[in-house]
Amino acid sequence: MPQLNPGPWFAIFIMTWVVFLLILTFKIINFNNLNEPTLKIIKKNKPESLLWPWT
């Protein structure tokens, strides 16, 4: 059964994954964000006090 002999395919499998991971990491590292994130300034307004007519 050739499936039990890892010699022919194991080296190809490892080399394929190494090349695949190297290509992916360089593509991810070279990725530039087109829209730079900006900080949202949240301004909290002071709530207005209620004027009760009976006080």
TrEMBL record:
GO terms for molecular function: proton transmembrane transporter activity. Keywords: ATP synthesis, CF(0), Hydrogen ion transport, Ion transport, Membrane, Mitochondrion, Transmembrane, Transmembrane helix, Transport. GO terms for biological process: proton motive force-driven ATP synthesis. InterPro entries: ATP8_metazoa, ATPase_protein_8. The keyword Ion transport applies. It is found in: Mitochondrion membrane. GO terms for cellular component: mitochondrial membrane; proton-transporting ATP synthase complex. The chain crosses the membrane at residues 6-26. It comes from the Eukaryota. Its main location: mitochondrion. The keyword Cytoplasm does not apply. It is a single-pass membrane protein. Belongs to the ATPase protein 8 family. This is ATP synthase complex subunit 8. The lineage of its organism: Eukaryota, Metazoa, Chordata, Craniata, Vertebrata. The gene is ATP8.
